[in-house]
Amino acid sequence: MNFYLTILNTALNTARGALFAAIAATVFLGSSAFAIEEAINEVIVSADFRDTNLLSTAASISVIDGQTIDRRQARHLGQLLNLSPNVNFASGASRGRFVQIRGIGERSQFIEPLNPSVGILVDGIDFTGIAGAATTLDIQQVEILRGPQGTLYGANALAGLINLKSNQPTEQTQGNFEVSLGDYNTQTVSAAVGGMLTKDLGARVAVQQHSSDGYISNDFLKRDDTDNIDELSLRSILDWQASAVLALKLTVFHVNADNGYDAFSLDNTRQTLSDTPGHDRHKSTAFAVESNWQANDSFELVGLLSFADNDLEYGYDEDWAFPDICTGEPCEGWEYNSVDNYIRERKNATVDLKLVSTEGGRILNNSSDWVLGAYWRDQDEQLLRQYTYADGDFTSDFETDNQAVYGQLDTQLSDRLTLTSGLRFEQRRANYVDSQNIAHGVDESLWGGRLALNYQLSDQNMVYGLISRGYKAGGVNSDPALSAEDREFDTEIMWNLETGVKGLWLDNQLQAQVSAFYQKRDDIQIKQSLVQSREDSSASDFTDYFGNSANGSNYGLEVELNWFASETVAVFASLGWLETQYDIPLSEDLDSRQQAHAPNYQFALGTSFQINQNLALTVDIEGKDQFFLSSSQNKKTESYELLNANLAYRLGDWQLSLWGRNLTDEDVIVRGFGGFGNDPRKFYETEAYYQYGEPRMYGVSGKYDF
Predict the structure, then answer these.
(1) What are the chain's domains?
(2) How many Å apart are CA 696 and CA 580, to the nearest integer?
(3) Cα–Cα distance between 64 and 471 in angstroms, integer?
(4) pLDDT tens digit string along 606-627?
(5) Contacts (Cβ under 8 Å, ≥6 apart) of 393
(6) Secondary structure class of 616 (helix, strand, coil)
(7) Which of 9, 24, 4, 2 is closest to 617 using CA atoms?
(8) 4: part of which helix (H) or strand (E)?
(9) pTM, 2 dp
(10) Which residues contact 570 (CB under 8 A, 6 or more apart)?
């Protein structure tokens, strides 16, 4: 074991030196005469009703490709989100499980049933609200659609939609094998292979095992792996051309994450004192069946059936300390000791059937393509909470049933002007019951839609205007400590006005997207906390609940650029600017302030140098403004900038990479709480507590493509 650690440390020390030397050398290599092999290719977005070109889509969309994922050595969706403007996330777990787009989205979940604001799909399988399953195993691209997707996805996409699409079977046999080692005993082994099994049947299989000790030292237990990562991901795809007019695809996906959770310290450091470290487990088995039947010359019938069985367990040491922390100290007798554990079993099934017109089926004088569809989603989530200070276990059952019909017309008003009009009607029924005799039922009709004008300035660039309406269903707060008026909350509605320009410039060397948006929110669903002192100690209990506390508005700007400056230099950049406000103040203290998890700016800037035919260096910096951690407190994060680098040497089908993230070792807050005390040594003095993200990381990876 010592020999292995010596080899690993030697490799990582070599990686550190090589990275810093390479970064310094870029000053002199920028004018190198060697040829860069990359080019700006057509990017296809698959999340819409039909595959569309990114640069001709009237919406603000980011597409993160597989090459970018490899360069960042990203193993989870949360490690990619900073590349997209105005996209943030909250952790409070082993991974960034909760996503905010343009300042809108959840930040945590405990006993309350959750209606998500950001939809998450993995190969058509619905993982909305449980992004811990969004590993990057064999992912072709990640598509982030900003703004309400009321027509496309409905009640769970008020803020936007994230679609992960994996690599598909290919006509020629191809695949890869990769091994990666990094700091903190980080290890990744992955493999994928795909091709044709018969003339009409293609297949692809991928597997990945990723593990790490994590970045926490538990000083009480003398361990450095209490906040560890241990994730196994598997995927298989069968793509069958059953006949000349019928294609079928089966995707099976499995994730088994057995991660630790020991993130919060009484001293706000990476050194914890917990005696019962927590865990963040997610075991999921899911499948999707997609069919495409070319019924006639007028339309295709496209169907998607998916099912996901998720077992989740999330628990933590609530006091963040060991029982005898005050023995012999002035605080003796003040301490408390408790654990909190949440076991969820969630099953969801979806059926989506749509008729998609072909060229021969256009209507309105052959000017309009059309889509007409029906959607059904059923989800059942059962919760068991085991809490030290509770009088018995808490259980709940939350069932939701969504049925929708939708349609969209893409009408060619002239050679250059296209009008897109979409509408969705949704019927949502929800029933909630728990062990504390709380029962709640919802039966509501919802609607969303969009109108968009797309004007082609030329063959290579366009300008668009968009108005869309999204909705987030109302619900119930489960805690009986709440008053009757705080028990239920209403549906949130949002209108989105957006305009933008997209295209290619500078002889196709520059790809650019620029958009500006204004979002008007009515009956904002805001998570708040009720703080109550315990009778048996000086600590406090917190009751989280949702309420319709205010109206508000979110507006800003989003820019994304890819520029091939020369044959050897490529530059990429993104910038998000965001202003948010409450039109009706929550309180005197919170009047006219930014909404929670809504930084004013966010950026990413990087460059790739093709040093010679075999060697390439990518350096990038990402940054984010400070932001409020909660809707009910004024505690903020600090602004930050992170430096990342990847030096890749390719020889034939082999590639060796030295990589580093957060090279300047910044402390980044990914979750935080304020307004309470949890340290008996300070007699529970009120203060803020923070969870920190990844520190400086170095590693080396080897990959073989065939």
Answers:
(1) 2-705 (2.40.170.20)
(2) 32
(3) 27
(4) 999 999 999 999 999 999 999 9
(5) 384, 385, 386, 387, 435
(6) strand
(7) 24
(8) helix 2-29
(9) 0.92
(10) 36, 38, 562, 563, 564, 607, 608
